[in-house]
Write a structure and sequence with these properties.
The protein has 167 residues and is of the alpha+beta class. The protein has three helices and ten strands, in the order αβββββαβββββα.
Amino acid sequence: MTSAEDAVQEANGAESPRIEDERGAILFKVGHEYMALPLEDIGEIHEMEEISVLPLTPPFLGGVINVHGILASVINLDVVMNVHKSGDGRFLIRLIPERGGIALRVDNAFGMVRYSVLEEVAVAQDSAYGKVHIVEGVFRSGDKLISLINPDKLCAWIDKALAKGDE
């Protein structure tokens, strides 16, 4: 069993008490970093299919993919999060349709984890695209610190970055 699978199993273990304000998130890995997205924002997770690359697009936009007859923009999360790639980004996490047809390219997707305490993280802003940091906070799962991505901030950052590219 991998350390990520151990973290999922430990986070969901029967011996841990249930907490009233506990929330669920999907655990995944980008490079060597563990990250998560709130469960309610996930449409589906699947292995990579063929991506149609779009010429003259920013590096974070990997192209588009057809998922069940609906086009989704593929976002290279390693570029957005500024982490070194460790795999081939073979999984896509498609956000719910209300998030605007976005699929996040990640190295591995592990399953659901539960968290109740979210620690805020102080970070500098990225001036490249007027980026507000998209990490809402971090939580522990076993011995791992996991960054929880705020989907509202992620989508706003993508919109702003694409609009800046049109200037």
